[in-house]
Amino acid sequence: MTTGKAFRNWWTGQGGNIAVMGALFIPGVLALGGVAVDFQFTIRQKNKVQFALDSAVLAGALSRQGGASEEEVSADIKAYTAALVAEQGGKIDCAPVTVTYNPDNKDIRGTIRCDQPTFISDLIGWDKLSFRAGSTSTYAVGNADVAFVFDVSGSMNSYNRLSLLKSAAAVAFDELLPDDGPNDGKVRLAVTTYNNAVNAGAYFNSVTRSVQLSADGSNSAARSNYDSHNDARMIDASTGKRFFYYEHEYCPGGNCTGNWNAARRKFEDASVIDTCVYERTGGDGASDAAPGSMRWIGAGNPRWNWTTGNNNKRNGQWEIESSGGDSSRGAYDASYAGCRASGPVPLTDDKAVLNAHVQSLTANGGTAGHIGLAWGWYLLSPNWASVWPEASEPLEYNTKQNMKAVILMTDGDFNTNHPTAAKSSFRQAQDLCDTMKAAPSKIQVYTVGFQVPGSVQKTADGRTILEYCATSPAYAFNASNGDELTAAYRSIARSISELRIKQ
Length: 503
What we know:
By secondary structure, this protein is α/β, with parallel strands linked by helices. It has helices at about 5-65, 70-85, 160-175, 205-210, 220-225, 310-325, 350-360, 370-380, 425-435, 465-470, 480-500; strands spanning about 95, 100, 105-115, 130-140, 145-150, 185-195, 200, 210-215, 235, 240-250, 260-270, 275, 345-350, 400-410, 445-450, 475-480.
């Protein structure tokens, strides 16, 4: 008998038994499959409930941080979660959220129990599947140091932009430093502005490390800086005035032979633009390295070039001496004069100081956005701690539960750089953003474009400098009117508060 025939005989003989076994086995298989289907659906429902609870507890932490009472926060968490759960469908039945508070670590804990009706498993007596979800968030724990960088170039005078900026900034300050919230110094804000340059203000000497020069000109450090053709300011120790030191060519009978008088002469200048600062030199330009002696291009707006060569030195001498000490010509390039009359506001939680500074802003000049970005970074950098007042010293980059953010606002292209700079403002800004977003600083960069024209310069891949610099696309905002500008700053402020909580 062949194997095939034998199998057929066996199957025929066993048919009745197989039918009986199938009648018993198939419902079990179907029941197990139904349980699997119901189980997978319940998992999806639980994930949705978890998301709803996470969102509700985080929102509650934000409210608590802003001064809301425990009772108010609990009611909001319960209502918010219930509303989101109701949107899920599936006839899910959840008990109200249980909300608890830990006063020691400022934790808010939300827990919820839900029953999900089954669709198939009830055939075997399982009419529902139950699960629990929990979520914890904290408030008023993380530190946040935030530097606002405002464009105050001349175009900000158009279409009421500057006034709208002032209003939007006040909203952001209120969000981050609420009047009824815990004002414990954990949130500190700083402000710097830029046009052609940044005014270092009272911090100029600390920033540029200007040389203290004796009245008789004998200071060796000053001579060394002159000999290296450095054009930064020096300070007369006796008068406190800043001046340039230069050699005077000996020209008997008008015949100038390159015989330069070793005795230096000082050119005094007490103008307010003395504290304007442009790009840093060399590798410092794209870093937050601590300030070093004279490592700045054009600190004080000098226009002449103290490079070697008689003609260059003669031109510099002529421009000084023919001007008769007039800072409007000769000593200064007028196109690079006129940075903001006041310096930056270092980190503070004094909202009144911040608002007063912003409300005093005026607009003029060009758009050197890269310098504004750099100074936003300096205000947050621990490498600059020695420059700022003790209460404004930035925390170290590796400080736990600390986030640092720069918020850059502009209405146009980055189109102004010092004539001697190696790169355009646009390219320098790219370098700065690359470095400040990377380790160890890991600065969160938010950008706000306000009525930026479509013709603005773009990178090779089609991004504006604001899109390029932002930490992610979600961090880049565009506003076409005052309401959208205010909404952008409010959204950024809330994002920063969330980041503090999530740390």
